[in-house]
Structures are given as structure tokens and as C-alpha cells.
UniProtKB/TrEMBL annotation:
It comes from the Bacteria. This is FeS assembly ATPase SufC. NCBIfam families: sufC. Belongs to the ABC transporter superfamily. Ycf16 family. GO terms for molecular function: ATP binding; ATP hydrolysis activity. Residues 2-242 form the ABC transporter domain.
Length: 250
């Protein structure tokens, strides 16, 4: 479904991704872990098409389409969903309006207002959100947890084929982490894949990944099942650096 091959990318002339290769199949949940500065957020930014990041080598395809040639909205139309650590505030645009516009821009046919209303109510109930939340302006004055909840609400409403979730859980309480997990677990199924980038292991207690990858210095240096996350928890990233760091054989 998603195929990343030998991806090299730089920001302001500095190479951050240095030959990253990853394949995500249909229905699979992948976690990417790695020490600070290893390039996890850079990967998410490159996948969403952030203009500041320049891909210098390699390829990214989604269901056979060359993603790197596409604008962010075209990527979304294909069924990719990219959630971000720092969603922007959009005063004057309510959550409900934003979601309606987002859904209509990725679907072939416009969703009738009543159907949209019901869809939103259903998903908000699922996330234990107060209905009045839909009338608030997007991200304006939202707490960290509310931003997260709103991001996952988008995921549930848009129903993408693949979600890339860049989860820095710093500053988020345990409830917010569970919200993300609940959203991903809700979506889980043969038609939904996810790449969950985690800056801390905690979230993997709630989302059980099929595969875990460890990133170091712009590459994936080792992959395994969920037991790899447990191994990292006990051995720490120094172990990864010693085993797979520069100058060692991988
Ligand atoms: N806009 C930028 N300008 C300069 N350097 C950047 C920029 N964005 C990222 N970097 C550098 O790229 C490297 C990788 O950063 P990135 O945020 O991708 O790492 P990360 O694995 O997500 O880290 P963390 O776990 O600390 O969030 C870091 O050394 C960072 O300073």
C-alpha cells in the first residue's frame, strides 16, 4: 500500500533522512520509534508534502501512485491522512464547517448536510465529545487534549485508507493518549493501515502494532514485532546506538 524506498530528504541544506525504506501493507499498523532527532517528524513532514523539506533521492508510492509528485490535497484524495503535532488555529471556521469541507474535498460526491450532521454526532459520541464542541472555532483556545481529540475526530470522519500519526505525547495526559489509541483501534480493520510515529513508548500500551521499526540517524535500522518495543523499553536507545549506530554493521 505505502512503499518508501531509499528516501533521502534535507531541510535547509542538512540531510536528515538518509536512505529510509519502509513498506506498509493493507490493514497493518506500524509503529516507528527512535531517539530524539533521529528524523521521525521529518518523515511525517515529507509524507505530507511540507514545502520546507526537499527530497533528494528515493521514492514514495501509495497504491502505486508517486506520492512525491502530488500536492498535499491530492495525497488526501488518494486516502492518506496526516495528523500533526501542532495543528494551527483557524479563527472564524468552526470544527463542523471544517470537517464538512474536508470530507467533501476528499469524496467524489458532496455529503448531504443531514448525513454529515449525523456522521459528526455519531463520531463525537464515540469520542465522548460534547456536541457544543462542533461549533467552536478550529483549534482556537483548544487544550492539548482537545486538539488531539479533534484530530482523531477528523480521522474518524474522513475514514482514510492510511493514517500517518506523528504522536509526540509530551504534554498530553494519559486520557489524550487513550483518545488517540481509541481512534486508531476504532479504525482498525482490513481496509485501514497506520504508521504511528511515537516519541515515547507509552502509546504502544494502548495501540498494539503489528510491526515496530526503530529509526536512527535518518534510517530504519531494525524492525520486529511488538516485542521489539518492549525490548527497547528495557534496553534503551543506547543499545540501538551500539548495535546499529554509525560505524557498526547493520
Ligand atoms: N526546519 C529545520 N531546520 C533545521 N534543522 C531541522 C529542521 N527540522 C528538523 N531539523 C533537524 O533534523 C533532525 C531530525 O529532527 P526530527 O524532528 O525529524 O527528529 P525526531 O526524531 O522527530 O525527534 P524528536 O523525537 O526529538 O521529536 C534534528 O537534528 C533537527 O534539529
Amino acid at each position: 500500500m505505502l512503499k518508501i524506498e531509499n528516501l533521502h530528504a534535507e531541510v535547509e541544506g542538512k540531510e536528515i533522512l538518509k536512505g529510509l525504506t519502509l513498506e506498509v501493507g493493507r490493514g497493518e499498523i506500524h509503529a516507528i520509534m527512535g531517539p530524539n532527532g533521529s528524523g521521525k517528524s521529518t518523515l511525517a513532514n515529507v509524507l505530507m508534502g511540507h514545502p520546507r523539506y526537499e527530497v533528494t533521492e528515493g521514492s514514495v508510492t501509495f497504491e502505486g501512485e508517486d506520492v512525491l509528485e502530488l500536492e498535499p490535497d491530492e495525497r488526501a484524495k488518494l486516502g492518506m491522512f496526516l495528523a500533526f503535532q501542532y495543528p494551527s488555529e483557524v479563527p472564524g471556521v468552526s470544527v463542523a464547517n471544517f470537517l464538512r469541507t474536508a470530507v467533501n474535498s476528499v469524496r467524489e460526491q458532496e455529503v448531504p448536510p443531514m448525513e454529515m450532521y449525523k456522521l459528526l454526532q455519531e463520531k463525537m459520541r464515540l469520542m465522548d465529545m460534547d456536541p457544543s464542541f462542533a461549533e467552536r472555532y478550529l483549534n482556537e483556545g483548544f487544550s492539548g487534549g482537545e486538539k488531539k481529540r479533534n484530530e482523531i475526530l477528523q480521522l474518524l470522519v474522513l475514514q482514510p485508507k492510511l493514517a500517518i500519526l506523528d504522536e509526540t505525547d509530551s504534554g498530553l495526559d494519559i486520557d489524550a493518549l487513550q483518545v488517540v489509541a481509541r481512534g486508531v483501534n476504532q479504525m482498525r480493520g482490513p481496509e485501514f493501515s497506520a504508521v504511528v510515529i511515537t516519541h515515547y513508548q507509552r502509546i504502544l500500551r494502548y495501540i498494539e502494532p503489528d510491526f515496530v521499526h526503530v529509526m536512527l540517524d535518518g534510517r530504519i535500522v531494525t524492525s520486529g514485532g511488538k516485542e521489539l518495543a518492549e525490548e527497547l523499553e528495557s534496553k534503551g536507545y543506547d543499545w540501538v546506538r551500539q548495535e546499529f549506530g554509525a560505524g557498526t554493521q547493520s
